[in-house]
Amino acid sequence: MSGYKPVAVPSYPKLGEKITQDTLYWKHYKTPVQIKEFGAVTKIDFSPVQPCNYAVTASTRIHIYGQYSQEPIKTFSRFKDAAYCGTYRGDGRLLAAGCEDSVVQLFDINGKAALRQFSGHSKAVHFVDFTSDKFRIVSGSDDYTSKVWDIPNGTEISNYKEHTDYVRCGCASKLNDDLFVTGSYDHTIKVFDARTEKSVMTMEHEQPVESVLLFPSGGLLVSAGGRYVKVWDLLKGGQLLVSLKNHHKTVTSLCLSSSGQRLLSGSLDRHVKIYSTMNYKVVHSFDYAASLLSLALAPDDEMIVVGMTNGVLNVKYRKHEEKKQPSKRHPRYRMFVKGKDYMAKQDDIFISKPVRQHMKKYDKQLRGFQVSAALDTVLETDITARTPEVTVAVMNEINRRGTLKNALAGRDEKQLSTILTFLIKRVVEPRFAPMLVNVAENVLDIYSSVINQSPIVDKLFLRLQDTLEKEISYQEELLEVLGMMDTLFATMASKIETVSGETKSISIPDQKTRKSSL
User: Fold this and answer.
1) What does residue 206 show for φ and ψ, rounded to 5 degrees?
2) Which of 7-21, 145-159, 325-339, 418-432 is predicted with the least confidence, judged by mean pLDDT?
3) Cα(220)–Cα(233) distance, integer angstroms
4) 282-287 and 251-256: which strand pairing?
5) What is the pLDDT of residues 69-79, one digit of tens each?
6) 138, 160 in Cβ contact below 8 A?
7) Which terminus of the chain has a smaller tally of CB atoms within 10 A, N or C?
């Protein structure tokens, strides 16, 4: 008994994403709260001042939500048709919105009726924003025009008709009172100065533009359209700095973190990508249940709010870890730890006590030849979910002893269901497949006579059969692909390349190399 060696659990390489500081930071957002709206959520805008309320534009309403409220604290519903682009002013006191009936409406955040209605567009207004002086509104419409409105007088100041398709997005500079940007479905982005009669800069996005965003410094502009996110340098005449293609469907929305060091993009492919603004590489990604139309990050980065095509508002809050108070130690503690850091000198004689080895529960059971009990121990949910390699290692040890059938036999319905559930979940994993296929064969040999006696067990056997059939189908498809690659490489090998009058044969990887690459 004293010579028993504990079960050696093999270590497998961990699959998954690389853990970085960004991964740890963005994973600290809690499980989302989901709120059902009346229609697709087309715009989310946070108040720039505390408290961090946010306006949600969906269908014919604009709802104002508090930071932790799951019900609207205020609603603006004085729209004849669909509302668009509910946007706060810089002081958080006024809210502007466009609508399908071509009118721009201005609301007092504490009132209900519209303070002003700006009429001048002939089609739906999809974009509105306030200039940084707080006295003007810029708007863009499906009538191809962009307009500047005076808030105190309720009149139109400027009208620009340079786009040749719908103007669906735009933003005003936070530094320059007269500068604003528009994006259109004619694939262009135009920069306007309200003091001039024409645009001062034009950039070709090469896709219908869905969203534009100015950096706080005013020197960089980000545009989104099609599958592309592009960054432009306005200080160099609109020079393209970088073109990002990390989504596989249309990118619909953009936003920046409070520090400006992270750029977020939402897409119809149900993903939010987070980029570092230092090198524009993706540092993290969020996955959602439906296509995304709008995206916003709270001014203090405490909330991520996403609006989806199915009318669901998804809110994630950042969780903070509570600092644990250090436990008070008894005065005698210093006596017990005295000398623990002492370094032995050259002439010192070191006497060590043998360290007692604490064995796992399943090791104690295996040492006592209780193979069935050991198998029960490693089939507990805690072990199978977190460390399935321990379960497989114990099965392998029992099989090595030649007692696998004895350990699997004599199971009741619940115990057999536990074994079958584990097999269904893990039998197709390459690291476990050799052992678990053997276990599955033994289970079928032992319990084939009791099939059709328990509906629960029968259902699990059918699921196991379905899992194995699918895996066999995948393997057959892979073999077909390997066969096609063999034919392709054999054809290539028969060709000779002529380079500078010399013939050079093409090196073809062998079959083992190709299989490992797959």
Assistant:
1) 70, 10
2) 325-339
3) 5
4) unpaired
5) 888 999 998 88
6) no
7) N
Alpha helices in 240-332 (DSSP H): none
**Which CA distances in Å does 232 have to 118, 134, 453?**
32, 26, 69
**Rounded Cα–Cα distance for residues 466 and 452 (Å):** 17
Distance of alpha carbon 501 from alpha carbon 487, whole angstroms: 28
Q: Quick one: tokens of 355?
A: 């360290």
Each residue's pLDDT tens digit, 458-496: 999 999 999 999 999 999 999 999 889 888 888 877 764
CA distances from 419 to 216, 377, 394, 427 (A): 58, 12, 13, 11
Q: For residue 236, what are its two tokens?
A: 């160099």
How far apart (Å, rounded) are the C-alpha atoms in residues 266 and 247? 9
Radius of gyration of the chain (CA): 33
The structure tokens 């001048």 sit at 120
Supply 146's token pair: 């962009």
Contacts by residues 406-415 (CB-CB < 8 Å, ≥ 24 positions apart): 406/371, 406/372, 407/371, 407/372, 407/374, 407/375, 408/375, 408/439, 408/442, 408/443, 408/446, 409/446, 410/372, 411/447, 413/454, 413/456, 413/457, 415/376
**Could you tell me whether strands 282-287 and 146-150 are parallel, antiparallel, or unpaired per DSSP bridges?**
unpaired
- The structure tokens 């050259």 sit at 346
Question: Which residues partner with 65 through β-bridges?
Answer: 54
Confidence of residue 284 (pLDDT cuts 50, 70, 90): very high
pTM score > 0.90 for this model?
Answer: no
